[in-house]
Task: inverse folding
DNA sequence: GACATGACGATTT
DNA sequence: GAAATCGCCATGT
């Protein structure tokens, strides 16, 4: 049937990890990609997030780029919703950038003990 | 099927 | 240390 179910699998993998992100924590696209075993296709993670609108339960605001920069904030209902939501969880955001990013960084490949 | 684009990352200059 | 460049892979035109 789905001879091209490649993206569906990938999307579900990404969603599963993003939903496991604990409160007040964030991760990066590359970290998720690496947890899936394809750290090089970090773009695909971002692409999957683009389709996250099909899954309203996806805390996409907890997923930022490797710089801790809210690169995808513009894809939310409002360009400020991502920032506001992160701050609401106790995450400090300044100039669209997460403060103490490395401190609150949550690596799925480690926390989920994915080898 | 070639060309361009994209919520990225790492490396090199 | 900032800017430029390559890599990677799926999607759209």
Result:
């Amino acid at each position: 049937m789905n001879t091209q179910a490649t993206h569906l699998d990938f999307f579900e993998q990404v969603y599963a990890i993003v939903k496991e992100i604990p409160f007040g924590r964030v991760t990066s696209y590359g970290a998720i990609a690496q947890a899936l075993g394809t750290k090089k296709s970090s773009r695909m993670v971002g692409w999957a997030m683009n389709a996250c609108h099909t899954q309203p339960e996806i805390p996409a605001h907890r997923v930022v780029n490797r710089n801790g920069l809210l690169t995808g904030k513009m894809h939310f209902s409002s360009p400020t919703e991502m920032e506001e939501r992160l701050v609401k969880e106790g995450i400090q955001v300044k100039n669209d950038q997460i403060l103490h990013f490395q401190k609150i960084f949550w690596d799925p490949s480690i926390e989920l003990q994915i080898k």
